[in-house]
Amino acid sequence: MVVILKNNASEEQINGVISQLEKYGFQVHVSKGVQKTIIGAIGVQPDFDTRKIRILDGVSEVYRVTAPFKLASRDFKEDNTIIKIKDVEIGGNNVAIMAGPCSVESEDQIFRMAEVVAKSGAKILRGGAFKPRSSPYSFQGLGEEGLKYIRKAADHFGLLVVTEVMQISQIDTIYPYTDIFQVGARNMQNFALIKELGNTDKAIMLKRGLAATIEEWLMSAEYILSNGNKDVMLCERGIRTFETYTRNTFDLSAIPVVHKKSHLPVVADPSHATGIRDQVPPMARAAVAAGADALMIEIHDDPANALSDGPQALLPNTYLQLIEELKVIANALGRKIN
Ligand code: PEP
Ligand code: MN
User: How remote is the C-alpha of 215 from its chain's centroid?
Assistant: First the structure.
């Protein structure tokens, strides 16, 4: 931490800041210039609240030098984390595709979608059985019945399952049916839930909150990692901005930023990021070009009658064509799709 004192800070104020820093356990290095005094405070206290220093008399600015997250940081682990689930790797050289409908709507529907996913060469089937909906009057998901259908469809086509968990009480119900627990954007800071998921032995896909900074997102990952579960992937799904022509604003730059700050794999979800069907393929292509380790894409064969997120679902043929385009982009970067 670097503490910059005000130009007119008195000796008494400077000494006051030094003694407070020492009291908090920091090693203090003072550098006195003609005009400014700067204090370097060294000590690994990832959760230190810098406001405690900012409010002291004579202090002008305080800067944190080390990130407040540790286990999630690239400093802690230099090599990329590769999550292995059966024969699928996320975070390695291949870009993993997760695709499927927003919601599991019926056994027949998820089987039809799983067939498309398998045909594309993708290995992971998505579909929500417990749905976080903005309106209490919207379809809330089929619950455990939906989990049975998605597992059955995935097993039939040799796919993995990723499905959303919204609350602690659903963990045990979902556990036998899924390979990856999805934590939705609205639950990124549901600390009770993510702590509990940190105690499980299944991979977690942590979506970025609607208004979460990258640091807050990584801090949530830290909750899971610090509880023992090391298989965490981060999913950029768009953030809330002033823009209204898209459902959310796809923060493409989050992909290289997270890759620099963290060793965890990054998934991109162009479907929720844009919310509009024709904007999904360009952003999917951009995500692969930006280095995403996986993509999550919503598909539906009758989007007009979909029970959730129809307007952002790709029709099967568009999706299959997109995968072919993604292969070309991945290939140019020395990577493979699936
Ligand atoms: C979803 O994946 O269908 C979903 C609800 O995502 P998010 O949490 O990103 O809104
Ligand atoms: Mn959806």
Answer: 11
Cα 164 to ligand 2 centroid, rounded to whole Å: 10
Query: CA–CA separation, 183 vs 193, rounded Å?
Result: 9
Backbone angles phi, psi at 225, to 5 degrees: -60, -40
- pLDDT tens by residue, 159-217: 999 999 999 999 999 999 999 999 999 999 999 999 999 999 999 999 999 999 999 99
Give the ligand whose atoms come closest to the C-alpha of residue 185: 1
How would DSSP label each residue in 71-128? TTBTTT--SPP-EEETTEEESSSEEEEEEE-SB---HHHHHHHHHHHHHTT--EEE-B
Enclosing domain of residue 54: 2-63
Which of 272, 295, 307, 309 has the most ligand 1 atoms within 8 A of CB, as the residue to mutate? 272
Q: Looking at the domain assignment, is residue 256 inside a domain? A: yes
pLDDT in tens, 60-74: 999 988 888 999 999
Give the closest residue (by CA) to ligand 1 atom 1: 102
How far apart are alpha carbons 182 and 205 in whole angstroms?
A: 5
The answer to whether the pTM exceeds 0.85 is yes
The answer for residues whose C-beta is within 8 angstroms of residue 269's C-beta and 6 or more apart is 207, 235, 236, 237, 238, 295, 296, 297
Report the CATH number at residue 12: 3.30.70.1140
